[in-house]
Amino acid sequence: MVSRDKLSGDSVIVVTGASAGIGREICLRLARRGGRYVLAARSADRLVTLQAELRSLGVESLCVTTDVSDPNDLERLVEQTMKQFGRIDVLINNAGVDCFCEFEKLTTEQILQTIEINLTGSILLARLVVPIMRTQSCGAIINMASTAGKHGPAFGAVYGATKAGLIGFTQGLRGELLQHGISVTAICPGFTEHGGIYDRIVEATGKQTSKFVGGTTTQQVAAAVEKAIDSGVPEMIVNWPPMRPIFLLRDLFPRLGEKIILMASRKFLKRAAMTKNET
User: Fold this and answer.
1) What is the extent of the structural domain holding 113?
2) Residue 235 has what DSSP assignment?
3) What is the 3-state secondary structure (H, E, C) of 83-124?
4) Of 125, 173, 193, 263, which has fewest CB within 10 angstroms of its CB?
């Protein structure tokens, strides 16, 4: 795992989807402990704005405009990072897109784009970074999954599939790399305020999730990422109320657990899907 003192000084942290929402909050939180940051996202203007904020905190950073669905961009991201800083201590695979829609109304392009951004990009970027971390004999990889990966949401089958895939990828890669001093963690937030996806759904529908489903904030997710880097835990579910007992109930009593989850979330997600179909 990466010890606490590695998140200061010369440690290099690569963050995808850094320009807004959870990614931006992660950078600002970790920057209080120093380090050097590689900011990757598609929006060059937002990256420059974040870079200025980090500079005001006395933190050095590099902006690399990156589309994580493009393998060439991922290679360029790692090449520029190594050219500038010479190492990678933490990789935070945070970039992602939502895909809430009635399944049969999704286009092939939407399905492939969701898989490429949410899952394939993280896998390919990790493949480029792992050899560097193995040479260093230390490192941490944080994969931003979702509670949707623990139980696929109605009207979000493809989105849930990508997040479940990311959790599975995390587990397999972790088992392979722990012996080399590299931790791999899946962060599983619930619906996240100020994170982008949830905010757009609430704005479009005028409704929030039920109190039973709850949610989290970008600040709480960023705190979980910091804790995961320090502790090297396998997985963290970030949501209030806690969702792990519900998932355990679902595993023990599949029909009952499914019924409870659908009762709490289906109406909200259907509203989100129908709104997207109209736009």
Assistant:
1) 4-199+216-240
2) E
3) HHHCCCCEEEECCCCCCCCCHHHCCHHHHHHHHHHHHHHHHH
4) 263
Q: Whole-model pTM above 0.85? A: yes
Active site residues: 159
Name residue 66's amino acid. T
φ and ψ at residue 183, rounded to 5 degrees: -95, 150
Per-residue model confidence as pLDDT tens digits over 140-197: 999 999 999 999 889 999 999 999 999 999 999 999 999 999 999 999 999 888 766 6
**Which region, left, alpha or beta, applies to residue 247 given φ > 0 means left and ψ of -120 to 50 means alpha?**
alpha
Q: What is the CATH number of the domain that holds 190?
A: 3.40.50.720
With H, G, I as helix, E, B as strand and everything else as coil, classify residue 214.
coil
Please give the C-alpha separations between residue 247 and each of 109, 144, 237, 269, in angstroms, as whole numbers: 31, 19, 11, 18
